[in-house]
Write a structure and sequence with these properties.
- It is a single chain.
- The protein is mainly beta.
- It has one domain (about 10-115): Nucleoside Triphosphate Pyrophosphohydrolase (Alpha-Beta Complex).
- Helices cover about 10% and strands about 40% of the residues.
- Strands 1, 2, 5, 6, 7 and 9 form a six-stranded mixed β-sheet that branches.
- A hairpin with an 8-residue loop joins strand 3 (about 30-35) and strand 4.
- It is globular, with a radius of gyration of 15 Å.
- The termini are far apart.
């Protein structure tokens, strides 16, 4: 089904999200979303790309906002095109990979992202 055949979409253009696989050793960070997009689902941290922002800058900003972690060696991984007819949403999601700057710092819990038990990084 194309968007042109689905007249009930409230937003007439896709949103762009950036998700980040934050790596520490051989594990990556995962948490449960509290925000409106994906609330209650297990996700990697990330958020919306702001106007004029690079993917890497968005990744740094979102990870710092959601987890209070600083990241480095940020690299593009892949992109997805997600048309969610039931939710009237369309997202283009950019996925990045990065390493934590200080492996001794634990991620903080935020208002939109909380962590899986005490296992912040999952294999």
């Amino acid at each position: 089904m194309s968007l042109s055949s689905t007249p009930n979409y409230s937003c007439k253009h896709p949103r762009v999200g950036v998700g980040v696989f934050v790596i520490r050793g051989n594990k990556f960070l995962v948490g449960k979303r509290k925000g409106s997009h994906g609330a209650g689902t297990w996700e990697i941290p990330g958020g919306h790309l702001e106007f004029g922002e690079t993917f890497s800058d968005c990744a740094k900003r979102e990870i710092l906002e959601e987890t209070n972690l600083e990241i480095k060696n940020i690299k593009y991984q892949t992109v997805t095109n997600e048309i969610m007819h039931n939710e009237n949403k369309h997202y283009v999601s950019i996925y990045m990979k990065a390493e934590v700057v200080d492996e001794n710092v634990e991620p903080a819990v935020s208002a939109i992202f909380f962590l899986y038990n005490d296992e912040f990084f999952l294999a």
